[in-house]
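STRUCTURE:
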């Protein structure tokens, strides 16, 4: 439970700032200026409020009580909606409480990121005629803003668009990879964000360093990527594994079903029995893919139908499913040591190494397994239409396969009934 206390940090013989100390429990602690000040002789340490010895002090006390109530309401709302509580959030809410207008600096990278977040509902999607950013995209911008604020602490100064010289960009890149320990893909994505946001800022008249438009992003090479999939034989092992706990039996259903439907974890878990419809040719599942906002019809394969005929799996949280399917894979003896990245709770980063395969199974394995197992059996464009991939090159990179320049020619001959010699 959040608690707020007001304190002074100085006993100087002059008016000093009043701070509020917010405790969120479990070591989560913040200290923020309230914007009010008072002489220490007029402060009651016992009560944590100004002494009630004149009208000015009474007014400050009233303002502090108003702030305390407002902040606790904002914190409760934020926690209910999954919004991160940090210094920037608390400073902003403190200013909002008293309708203070904070002087903005449009030359700051963090300001431009917040501008995009604040206008997400009306922002035009690049390359499309639609407006409105997806929820996941907004979260990515929020994450990137925190990265920028952390980098400002590292360089001990504001990070401005005019600072984006080759030397500063290189420093940012090294900080992402070496100091923060981010993956190659995460660091490359952050640089892509920085370049994109710089273009937006320039359109708004902000002075941007010419080098900003030359920023290069990057991704892992195919050789460096560790793609974890489940083969048909391994899926059979999972199907036949002896499980006693209902939670694991339910998780196995989701895992096997996911490998037949080819959807992202968050989309898979939103599927309901009412989304299944029958047509003369078979059954389809209507899926609204969150990323890309696509509405797709997913065929119910014979194997998927067998699973569904045993009863639709119970709803489960994504994180719980990720935990349970590792136990399911372990029970199925998927113990082969393979290279991959495993989340480290201490560093909060994925660490590369050799681990038992069951430790590397996630809900994302479902979509990759579907794509890999049906590749070459079904035309690539058909699989892409189900998984939601847009570019064939991206799809092939996703499953770690090189482009087969003969594929379309072979399919053409197959459909017209000509044998390939």
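SEQUENCE:
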């Amino acid at each position: 439970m959040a608690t707020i206390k007001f304190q002074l940090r100085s006993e100087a013989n002059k008016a000093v700032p009043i701070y509020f100390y917010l405790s969120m429990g479990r070591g989560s602690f913040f200290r923020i200026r309230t914007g009010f000040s008072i002489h220490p002789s007029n402060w009651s340490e016992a009560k944590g409020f100004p002494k009630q010895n004149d009208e000015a002090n009474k007014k400050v006390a009233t303002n502090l009580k108003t702030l305390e109530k407002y902040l606790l309401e904002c914190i409760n709302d934020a926690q209910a909606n999954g919004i991160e509580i940090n210094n920037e959030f608390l400073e902003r809410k403190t200013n909002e409480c008293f309708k203070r207008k904070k002087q903005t600096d449009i030359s700051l990278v963090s300001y431009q990121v917040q501008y995009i977040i604040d206008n997400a509902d009306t922002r035009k999607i690049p390359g499309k005629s639609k407006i409105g950013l997806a929820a996941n995209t907004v979260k990515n911008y929020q994450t990137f803003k925190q990265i920028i604020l952390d980098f400002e602490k590292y360089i001990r100064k504001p990070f401005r668009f005019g600072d984006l010289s080759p030397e500063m960009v290189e420093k940012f890149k090294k900080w992402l990879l070496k100091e923060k320990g981010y993956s190659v893909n995460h660091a490359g994505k952050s640089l892509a964000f920085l370049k994109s946001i710089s273009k937006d800022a320039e359109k708004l008249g902000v002075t941007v360093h010419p080098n900003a438009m030359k920023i290069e992003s990057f991704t892992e090479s195919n050789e460096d990527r560790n793609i974890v999939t489940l083969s048909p034989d391994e899926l059979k092992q999972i199907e036949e594994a002896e499980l006693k706990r209902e939670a694991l039996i339910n998780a196995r259903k989701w895992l096997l079903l996911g490998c037949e439907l080819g959807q992202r974890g968050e989309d898979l878990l939103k599927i309901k029995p009412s989304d299944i419809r029958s047509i003369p040719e078979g059954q389809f599942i209507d899926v609204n893919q969150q990323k890309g906002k696509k509405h797709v019809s997913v065929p119910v394969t014979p194997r998927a139908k067998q699973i569904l005929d045993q009863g639709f799996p119970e709803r489960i949280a994504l994180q719980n499913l990720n935990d349970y399917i590792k136990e399911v894979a372990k029970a199925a003896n998927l113990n082969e040591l393979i290279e991959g990245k495993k989340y480290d709770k201490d560093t909060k980063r994925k660490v590369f190494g050799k681990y038992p395969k069951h430790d590397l199974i996630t809900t994302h394995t479902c979509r990759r397994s579907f794509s890999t197992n049906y590749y070459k059996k079904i035309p690539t464009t058909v699989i892409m239409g189900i998984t939601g991939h847009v570019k064939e090159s991206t799809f092939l990179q996703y499953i770690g396969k090189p482009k087969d320049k003969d594929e379309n020619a072979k399919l053409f001959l197959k459909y017209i009934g000509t044998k390939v010699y």
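REMARK: The two ends are 72 Å apart (CA to CA).
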